Amino acid sequence: MVTPKFDVTKGNKDWHGAEAILRERIRRSLEGIFHRYGYDPIDTPITEYQEVIAFKGGGEIQKEVFRLKDQGGRDLALRFDQTVPLARFIATHQDIVFPFKRSVIGPVFRDGPTQPEQGRYRQFTQCDVDVLGIGEMTAEAELLALAHDAFRELGLGAVEVKINDRKLLEGVLDYSGVPTSSRIKTIVTLDKMDKIGLEDVRNSLYTLTLSDQERGISNETLSLINRLAQESGIVHALEQARPNIISEIGVKGLDSLIRISENQSELGSAISSIADFKTRGELLLTPQQADKLVAVAGFTGDNEETYKFLSSLVTSEVGLQGLKEMRQVLDYSKAMGFEFVNLSPSLARGLDYYTGPTMEVYLKDKGIIKSAILAGGRFDNMVGEFRGGEKIPAVGFSFGLERLVTIISSQERQLARTNTQLYLVPIGTVDQCLRIAHELRNEGINVDMQMQPDRKMGKSIAYALAKGIPYVGVVGDMELADNTINVKELATRKEERVPLPALKNYMNRTNEL
User: Which of left, alpha, beta for 143 (phi over 0: left; psi -120 to 50: alpha)?
Assistant: First the structure.
């Protein structure tokens, strides 16, 4: 019989020991900051109906969605972020009062590539804050202040906040002459800037096509063409099915099918050739359009120089609105003394529900982690669309818990391996030691206790050392008689009899030394 392998699932990780304790410490810190800023917690299921996830999920992200069926045959999916479930929550609960500020810390799931060394797994924890019902840029300013406090409290070191605006990005695309039909794939390519660099983005834009792989028309469209051709001929059928064909293989793909059909005398042969046709589609950008985009994305300067540069290029109405929003955010940042906020023309968040300012936060020390440790932006349309087109402005961002663990683990030389502060060892006093442990826990001391009365003292101390418990407290008849504990500080080998009422102060004092 083959012994089964009980490995963790591919792309995931078990968290335990020092890392698990660090995760809890980060969660508590973030929750405290979220509450300080008036964000109330909500919690939604990890599963949503597939139509919810697909409603405003973005084409690229749909490839990474975990899909499943329940026992009733309903199509479900694991949430890939916390934003779409928020929109569904608002649609479900019509009694919500706006402005609505929510926080959530919970797992999300993406069936995509992983980078464990960068804190990227298939199951990961997003720590989100969002403000709904406020269209003014004051919401962005408050979020920047919250992020600043979080970085300081977590001790992350020097950071850089990159900001841009989806409206401003649309203005840049207008300036560059990028067709509307090419914009989603163009933005997704620009979004890879921090991962692959400017030159690789340039090369990707030069070769950007409708599809990443060769594809043909769908079976549904082929059946439609066949049916129409039976009635009015193949060329007329292709013209009638024009919208379907263009959406699947592009205008040049349609032209190729027309040429194929004109060279086939028999309908059956024409349909067969059309079924076999494959293409990646035409190039989405001209070299001139790609060069204009790269020139903007690669611009470097301080905030005022960058703003002036963009103002000289952007002339469309939507782009000018984006410039106005960026001006407000930059002015608010300056008023709060946030010199780490930088206007970045290359920032292009890939999800298609963003409508205004977007932001990403990076460590200045890229040797620790290269990816963003916080990201988000404004999504004014999505939440309202879940409520039948109601206008509900919204903005928020998300901390990646796993990436924060990666950063802090690399910065702190010695992480706590346990939450236990004191390990009590009874010497023939189990009943009284149980009472003492209970009393100390009620005083706020994290206490564990030796529960095997016959265990040798050496083994008890070795256990405490292995667990990383800083103090061992011995309770024998002598200690009971004078209401003390014989405390051993394992790091220094210091030993002292401490009165029970003074134990908490003693431990706090020695920890501060």
Answer: alpha
